[in-house]
Amino acid sequence: MNTKIQTGQQTAAAQLPQVTEPRNAGMGLDLNWVLGVQANTSAIERRAASLPARRSVKKAYQAAWLLKAVTCIDLTTLSGDDTARRVGRLCAKARQPIAASTLDALAIPPITVGAVCVYHEMIAPAVTALSGSGIPVAAVSTGFPAGLSPLPLRIAEIEQSVAAGAAEIDIVISRRHVLEGNWQALYDEMRAFRAACGDAHVKAILATGELGSLRNVARASLVCMMAGADFIKTSTGKESINATLPVSLVMIRAIRDYYAHTGYRVGYKPAGGISKAKDAITYLALIKEELGDRWLQPDLFRFGASSLLNDIERQLEHHVTGAYSAGYRHPTS
User: Fold this and answer.
1) Residue 87, by phi and psi: left (phi above 0), alpha (psi -120 to 50) or beta?
2) What is the pLDDT averaged over residues 149-158?
3) Domain boundary assignment for the chain
4) Residue 56's pLDDT is what?
5) Catalytic residue positions?
6) Top-level CATH class of 37-323?
């Protein structure tokens, strides 16, 4: 079977060199803008519900989009029983996420995932295992997942993770600031986190399932971007409700408005609950429609996932061979 993906069909296939984007410098807190933000829940839900049915891709086009999704994965392990050996296996998978035989059949050069995400204690083994690969190490921080430890400790945690070699820091905001409408406190906290990160990029985890309303999600997104977040992220993956399409639509449109207002592109990371290849394609289609092709690069879009890669591998192997392999043949660690 000739399964080569032709260049004209590669909207999403090859891992292109990352484009260096000016970091979001942030701006002063504009409460008039923040408080003016509303969310039409019924309209948002209708738009989100329509997307999976309207944006279905097949065959070589599907394979191309799935390869693009792989390059945007933050391959993650956040378990209490993580060990250096487990992280080493995860990093080996990050270096070669798709079997060479599958890539050869598709006539695609080697690709890697977007990053490897771990707890602070696992930064050193991850940095060692990824040496020379160009794959950044991301660390969760600031009292992840609850974010309720004292602020000085959360800031110190960021600084120690950066010193240990993390190039990206996934912080969690204080949800109470959003629920109480204390936007100044959220802004000040986010500014402090951004300053502690230095040259490391910061992803602000909103824990959207705990914010109470889509309006709160929109306002929190905007405040975090005003305070200098390089990415906004849906969830820790530990909440009962994680990434959803309605929440994603709200956050993506906040990113679009912020870009129109400031000229800074802020990245987006849905995390938690995205484990199927077809869902990854839906999210990529949403990004393409709402933000455009520039946001389809890993410097501006990531999936926070640990099991998504497994299903993508199975779908790509099916595309090449016509048969589905067992999930256990594609372990991530």
Assistant:
1) alpha
2) 98
3) 37-323
4) 72
5) 170, 233, 269
6) alpha beta
